[in-house]
Amino acid sequence: MQVGDKKLVVQRASVGAKAPVAPVTVQVPGLDVPDVLQQGTQPTRILCLLNMVTPEELIDEEEYNDILDDIREECNKYGPVVSIEIPRPVDGIEVAGCGKIFVEFATVTDCQKAQQALSGRKFANRIVVTKYFDPDSYERRDF
Fold this sequence. Notes:
By secondary structure, the protein is of the alpha+beta class. It is built from four helices and eight strands. The protein has helices at residues 33-38, 61-75, 108-118, 135-139; strands at residues 2-3, 6-7, 46-50, 81-85, 101-105, 122-123, 126-127, 129-133. The longest helix is centred in the middle third of the chain and has 15 residues, at 61-75. The radius of gyration is 17 Å and the shape is globular. It comes from Eptatretus burgeri.
């Protein structure tokens, strides 16, 4: 099938096949995935969720609260959530971490469970990218 200037090839998966599996590269516009994958690989209690929200979605108070509630509800499935930080845009000021979501779990194990479950899932038709975040930076709100 021709998609733009690229050719898309689709084939049926062979159940039980022993063919080598090549690594899959996910391309998200505006996100340098190799940098994301290199940072945040050591498990911590803080999970950073990327590609879930846009700064525009965080401006409206009601929409912001809906997003916060959705994230808290979903993340609590994997263990107690201690806190959630979603940096919001401020007119005329560049806010560090705006568009990222930071979730603090009670334990590293709970954070790992959430990371495994949420990475690659869809939220608002966007594929979620996750990484662990440095707890000291989180405490300083250095996003």
